[in-house]
Amino acid sequence: xxxxxxxxxxxxxxxxxxxxxxxxxxxxxxxxxxxxxxxxxxxxxxxxxxxxxxxxxxxxxxxxxxxxxxxxxxxxxxxxxxxxxxxxxxxxxxxxxxxxxxxxxxxxxx
Length: 110
Known about the structure:
This is L-rhamnose mutarotase. The chain is of the alpha+beta class. 33% of the residues lie in helices and 24% in strands.
């Protein structure tokens, strides 16, 4: 299992709406995430728009590819794209660059 953490930047003037949208994620989007191997997925938003994402998966490439192939994800990404800075019109999923894990409390032998 791999833990994946990433950062994106939500436009400050859209942060409240972004939060509202995520309070009502489409059921078929939630199902697609689960079906493609995204587990324990969380998003954390700082008031200035810094978004921290975290999820666990057995295969990052397969999880990303699986979502990229889903129509519901294409629709969701299209709706979410205007909320973000620095993606040059691209889908937010394309901005996922995993951070390097440097410490994990429960991992004794690195």
